[in-house]
Design a protein that fits this description.
The protein has 323 residues and is an alpha/beta fold. It is 30% helix and 24% strand. The longest helix is centred in the middle third of the chain and has 18 residues. The protein is globular, with a radius of gyration of 21 Å. It starts with 7 loop residues before the first strand and ends in a 5-residue tail after the last strand. 38% of the residues are buried.
């Protein structure tokens, strides 16, 4: 889909968690958390991954980094399929991909100073030690908007926004090509969210970073993303550039998500789409289109046939029989 080779290419990615019961812990089923996800991210591009809680967004991010082992599919980082690498080979590729966690407090070791937290990846990978380590950490602090004098402080001495800046500095330490942001601003105040988002965008422009930005806040996704993929119950149902998605959504689920976003203009009216019922269990997802149990347009074939993610317009991919 891109002229230049992608930094990340994910093909038919699956992650199924076994459900075990009884004294012998026999497997009686699976949680289909991620069930056949495909996308690419080009150099310097941000792909926003959105959907309801429990749809599998965070599982995609962690499986892409092999923090969770995939059940199936491939994950290529700079052309190398990391799903086939052993532990030693994977360790070498860890420098190319990093993660920013959702909670800026629990993701930091409370017993380590901020400087030690940011410098730890450099020491683990043997990149820098001693005075060089101190200089590189000091530079990282200043790059993310912190003072070098704060390196000796503990995490509890920082505000939430400052703690997330420490997490960003730690992610930048090894000069990665790809950063997965697992809802990195959802735990922050709105004003601080804007500061962190602008910092991430500035870093992307300066360093050519690629982001997989996982979020449920569509306003944040619209601000930072170049393209957006919408997930529902382990599958991507729509995937296109952000302008097209927000002005011409094709999948009924995307329409419902966008209708819930408030518009800061009292004269603009938007049709509300109220979804009926609850999200089905990922242990026993419905046959056919997973969304048919809540879709106002569902037909018989939606209940029987699984729609393919196909290109309905240039660069606009949709998984729906009716669109």
């Amino acid at each position: 889909m891109n002229a230049t080779p992608p930094v990340l290419r994910v093909t038919d990615l699956k992650k199924h968690f076994p459900v075990r019961k009884g004294l012998l812990s026999r497997t009686v089923g699976h949680v289909y958390a991620v069930d056949g996800v495909t996308f690419e991210i080009a150099p310097g591009e941000t792909l926003g991954l959105v959907g309801e809680s429990g749809c599998g967004k965070s599982t995609v991010g962690r499986t892409v980094l092999r923090l969770l082992e995939p059940t199936g599919g491939t994950v290529e980082v700079d052309g190398v399929d990391i799903t086939e690498l052993d532990r030693v080979q994977l360790r070498q590729h860890r420098q190319r991909m990093q993660i920013i966690f959702q909670d800026p407090f629990s993701s930091l070791n409370p017993r380590m100073t901020a400087g030690d937290i940011v410098g730890e990846p450099l020491m683990v990978h043997g990149v820098a030690r001693g005075e060089e380590l101190h200089e590189r950490v000091s530079t990282l602090f200043e790059r993310v908007g912190l003072r070098a004098t704060q390196m000796s402080s503990l995490p509890h001495q920082f505000s939430g926004g400052q703690r997330q800046r420490i997490g960003i500095a730690r992610a930048l330490a090894l000069n990665p090509r790809l950063i997965v942001g697992d809802e990195p601003v959802s735990a922050l105040d709105v004003s601080i969210q804007a500061q962190v988002i602008n910092l991430l965008m500035d870093l992307q422009q300066d360093l050519g970073l690629s982001y997989l930005f996982i979020a449920h806040d569509l306003a944040v996704v619209e601000h930072i993303s170049h393209r957006v993929a919408v997930m529902y119950l382990g599958r991507i149902v729509e995937h296109t550039d952000k302008r097209t998605l927000f002005t011409n959504p094709l999948h009924p689920y995307t329409e419902a998500l966008l209708s819930a976003v408030p518009i800061p203009d009292p004269e603009v009216q938007r049709k509300k789409v109220i979804l009926q019922g609850d999200v089905p269990s990922p242990i026993s997802p419905p046959p056919g289109c997973h969304f048919h149990t809540r879709c106002p347009y569902a037909e018989q074939r939606c209940r029987e046939q699984t729609p393919r993610l196909s290109e309905r317009a240039p660069g606009h991919w949709v998984s729906c029989h009716l669109r």
